[in-house]
Amino acid sequence: MVGPGMHYNAYAPGNPRSACNHRKLPATIITYRSNAGFTGQDSFVVEEIFPTGTAIKQRFNLEVR
Fold first, then answer.
1. Is the Cβ–Cβ distance between 44 and 61 less than 8 Å?
2. What angle do CA 62, 63, 65 make, to 5 degrees?
3. pLDDT for position 61
4. Could you give the CA distance from residue 8 to residue 16 in angstroms, rounded to a whole number?
5. Predicted pLDDT at 49
6. pTM of the entire structure?
7. Is residue 52 helix, strand or coil?
């Protein structure tokens, strides 16, 4: 599921944006939920498209217990 939410950033201490780490900011939240009773390997791909048109795909591999 993908939807709006709030999240803390995690910029490194030396990064000028690290001041943003202390408050929640608007974010897109991705939630994974397996089918009831499922255990084993699973994966999903997220494609992020930036305002510049650049697209990045990331694969997430999970072990559901």
1. no
2. 140
3. 97
4. 15
5. 94
6. 0.67
7. coil
Residue type, 60: F
Q: Tokens standing for 2?
A: 């993908």
Comparing CA positions, the residue from 11, 40, 9, 37 lying closest to residue 25 is: 9
Q: What does the buried/exposed string (b/e) look like for 2-23 if buried means 16 or more CB atoms within 10 Å of the residue's CB?
A: eeeeeeeeeeeeeeeeeeeeee
Name the E strands within 1-65.
2-8, 24-30, 40-49, 55-64
Say which amino acid occupies 5: G
23: DSSP letter: S
- Which pLDDT tens digits describe the chain residue by residue (65 residues)? 999 999 999 999 999 999 999 999 999 999 999 999 999 999 999 999 999 999 999 999 999 99
